[in-house]
Amino acid sequence: MAGGIGITPFMSQISDLNRLGYAYELHYAYRSADQAAFRDQLKKLCGDKVHFYVDDEGQRINFTELLIQQPLGSHVYVCGPNAMVNSLLLMAKEMGWPENALHSEKFLAPATGEPFIVSLKLSETEVVVPSEMSMLEALEEAGIDAPYLCRGGACGRCELEVVDCDGELIHQDVYLSDAEKISANKIMPCVSRAHCSRMVVNL
Ligand code: FES
Q: Which GO terms describe its molecular function (predicted)?
């Protein structure tokens, strides 16, 4: 079961499951149709094994029903927001699922840290990123139309080119390779920030 960008770790697992011919079903919940990362790809990969639930349309995964339906020996993998993961695990334990059949991962939250200034080269604007906000949130708050999709450091849609930074980038995403992170010329503003006083980006 996946919630939001919690779908990311399943993408590689699904290819393996298909290759090995294992039985599985994937239940994927997301906030709205325009935030359904990988939806088309999943339809192709999983066919009728994938089920979509759109929060905005009042659709919810029925954990109890799904857990009851599974044959003995099944395993549950869940990745998503804390509340979703915790409630599924609690329910499964109460229903007697063994601990070793339950696998979970909670997804990335934006890092908080010291405030800094982002200078937008193309828009010729400066935005202060406060300590409690992600860089993406600060840009949005300033009325900048910054791209995004997952808001969890996984899809790469929000990538910005870093033209200059007088400190150190703090990469929190799972999208950039180690080499790209070391090169310090790209950043995922949805989860990453910097330990600096000023960063210049190509936006
Ligand atoms: S919005 Fe997906 S990595 Fe930032």
A: iron-sulfur cluster binding; monooxygenase activity
